[in-house]
């Protein structure tokens, strides 16, 4: 047995892997299984911390499938994140001159800098209704991972 055989995924590991995030019905959200594998540095924010934690202790050749609750994924849906935005505010803080339709993901300039995004639900005469929850919030997910190599 060599040191490479003993290598396991840990904090700070460079990991070459295939991964897939999918809905419970099997619909892929993202997958590298039909492409080149990804190489990630654990702890660098390239993958959600919960997903990184699930890989801790795995070794090259391991292949696992994890079911994630909404809390383990993108959190539960928060009804307080469904908010009305004045159309004047929308025009001032989003892309100028764009026409938006329900279902569109709209990015805003945040007060004090930065950006945030919400899904447009409806447009009224003076305001628009947005859902600022992550689009995958409240959903169960499936995380599949195959470890190819660990550096």
From TrEMBL:
The keyword Isomerase applies. Keywords: Isomerase, Rotamase. It comes from the Bacteria. Coiled coil: none annotated. It catalyses: [protein]-peptidylproline (omega=180) = [protein]-peptidylproline (omega=0). Pfam families: FKBP_C (PF00254). Its EC number is 5.2.1.8. InterPro entries: PPIase_dom_sf, PPIase_FKBP_dom, SlpA/SlyD-like_ins_sf. One of its GO terms (molecular function) is peptidyl-prolyl cis-trans isomerase activity. Residues 12-85 form the PPIase FKBP-type domain. SUPFAM superfamilies: FKBP-like (SSF54534). It is an enzyme of class 5 (isomerase). Gene3D superfamilies: 2.40.10.330, 3.10.50.40. Belongs to the FKBP-type PPIase family. PANTHER family: FKBP-TYPE 16 KDA PEPTIDYL-PROLYL CIS-TRANS ISOMERASE, FKBP-TYPE PEPTIDYL-PROLYL CIS-TRANS ISOMERASE SLYD. This is Peptidyl-prolyl cis-trans isomerase.
């Amino acid at each position: 047995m060599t040191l490479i055989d003993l290598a396991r995924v840990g904090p700070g590991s460079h990991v070459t892997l295939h991964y897939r995030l999918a809905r419970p019905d099997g619909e892929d959200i993202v997958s590298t299984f039909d492409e080149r594998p990804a190489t990630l540095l654990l702890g660098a924010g390239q993958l959600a911390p919960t997903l990184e934690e699930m890989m801790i202790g795995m070794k090259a050749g391991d292949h696992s499938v994890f079911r994630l609750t909404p809390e383990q994924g993108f959190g539960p849906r928060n009804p307080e994140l469904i908010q009305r935005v004045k159309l004047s505010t929308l025009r001032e803080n989003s892309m100028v001159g764009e026409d938006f339709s329900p279902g569109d993901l709209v990015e805003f300039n945040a007060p004090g800098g930065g950006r945030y995004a919400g899904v447009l639900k409806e447009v009224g005469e003076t305001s628009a209704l947005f859902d600022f929850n992550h689009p995958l919030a409240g959903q169960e997910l499936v995380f599949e991972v195959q470890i190819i190599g660990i550096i």
